[in-house]
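User: Hello! My lab partner asked me to get a predicted holo structure for this protein. The small molecule is pyridoxal-5'-phosphate, SMILES included with the sequence. Please write out the structure tokens.
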Amino acid sequence: MPISSNNTSNESPNSEISIADQFPVNQQCFYLNHAAVAPWPRCTSDAVQKFAEENCQTGAQGYLTWLKKEQQLRTKLAKLVGSQHQECVALVKNTSEALSFVAYGLDWQAGDIIVISDDEFPSNRIVWESLAQKFGVIIQQVHINTENPEVEILEAINSSTLKPKLISVSAVQYASGIKLDLAKLGKACKEHNVLFCVDAIQAVGAMEFKCDEWHIDFAMADGHKWMLGPEGLGFFFVKQQHIKKLNLYQYGWHMIKGAGDFSIKDWQPADTAQRFECGSPNMLAGYALEASTDLLLTVGLNNVADSIEDNYAYLQLQLQALGAQILSPLKRHQRAGIITFKFEGIDSGWLYQQLMNNDVVCANRGSGVRFSPHFHTTKECMEGAINVLKSLLASRQ
Ligand SMILES: Cc1ncc(COP(=O)(O)O)c(C=O)c1O
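Assistant: Hello! Below are the structure tokens for the protein in complex with pyridoxal-5'-phosphate.
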């Protein structure tokens, strides 16, 4: 990736990378919405334009090179999720699709218990509720609070009466921004033989993630948030021992052993997670996501997480100085990139709309306004957003 060094306010730890050049979005608006849909880095936009031109000029003549790019993407995704096992990573349409692979891949008996939190994004609730309707599975919702977020989940895992078959939680809650201690939860799940499924969309790309070390059985995320890719291409991590155990319900030429050899009559599903990819890959999105993940890995996930934390801390201070009530965790180890806040006596829906009207790109979630800066977000961007907020508050007095 040809990246020059002319950093402005947001210094990259790697002197070869000009983060400022990679993110022109910071010159256009105050972008604080990575927990919804992220802007693309320059390298991603370039990769897509180059691929489009190649398609226009020579079609799929270079298909073998495309396949290599797809393999590079798999390697990078395995690194991003902290797995040594690239063969455990499938490319999927989105988080919901991968959650459905798990939900409809496992065998259920009436009375089996699934534990989720009471504030999950709908994708990580609806799919389990659909099982309740079909198979009589019981969904147990537990509360996650900022004081001790894991306590009720751990109680459920450790309970001798409940005996859940699976827990499915977001690594970082989409509204409150609470980050769970996945190492602790994974260890407890392993000890009690509970399957551990993690909706990782608000975490992967924003922090170090460790599927292998944290004993995660299934993890999934679309690429358009913290991974800085396009919508519609994500990953599905399946621990090796489960790959062949999940029932399949999508079939096609691409998911078999020896895919590409169209003469095979006596086919078998692939031994790897490729068995969850039934047909032609989304190559265009693959080129984009490969470029985005390459940038994140080049910067380093530790550095990414540190910069996000600095940005969070800055926003927290500024918002509190304006009298905001922070609805997200105040303790460093419990938070990632989501800071949600509200003001007493001010309708958050109104405030969100006014911010958007003034180029502060944010979201209206969890009864507050949600800001979500990434590692590249500049001080100027955050200052700009805070200044808009100040004038909106002043206009109401
Ligand atoms: C926690 C969580 N899960 C899933 C999604 C999106 O799911 P999908 O990738 O299926 O669109 C979101 C989007 O906001 C989310 O915050």
